[in-house]
């Protein structure tokens, strides 16, 4: 019976840790997308290019809540500041959430065998 409980706790722990990894991976991919969008805009990449346009459109969707937090006249600086803030917030919150999920994983049950 103890073996069944240990295996169940181990499976639950594995699932929780896998969820934490997925959250961390998705967070990293979102931050990477935002940073690539910043670099492409600041570097002056052709906005008519479909790849550049798609990256910028996807980035805009993620940084929508951070639109115009900083108001500066230069468009490149505005994107750098606002999108950079969004990337930083996503990074902090996403990794903190992944850490919380990982810490909430069951640690397993104590063995019923005496320690020698």
Description:
By secondary structure, the chain is mostly helical. It has one domain. It contains 3 helices and no strands. It has helices at 2-42, 50-63, 75-103. Helix 1 packs across helix 2. The chain is elongated and about 50 Å long. The two termini are 21 Å apart. The mean pLDDT is 85.
Helix content: over 70%
Mean of all residue-level pLDDT scores: 85
Taking the sheet with the most strands, its summary is: none
**Which structural class best describes the helix and strand composition?**
mainly alpha
Strand content: under 5%
Number of distinct beta strands: 0
Order of helices and strands: HHH
Any idea how many domains? Answer: 1
Q: Quick summary of this structure?
A:
By secondary structure, the chain is mainly alpha-helical. The protein contains three helices and no strands. Helix 2 (50-63) crosses helix 3 (75-103).
Observed structural traits:
72% helix; elongated; mainly alpha; 116 residues
Secondary structure: elements and pairs:
Blueprint: H1 2-42, H2 50-63, H3 75-103
Helix pairs in contact: 1-2, 1-3, 2-3
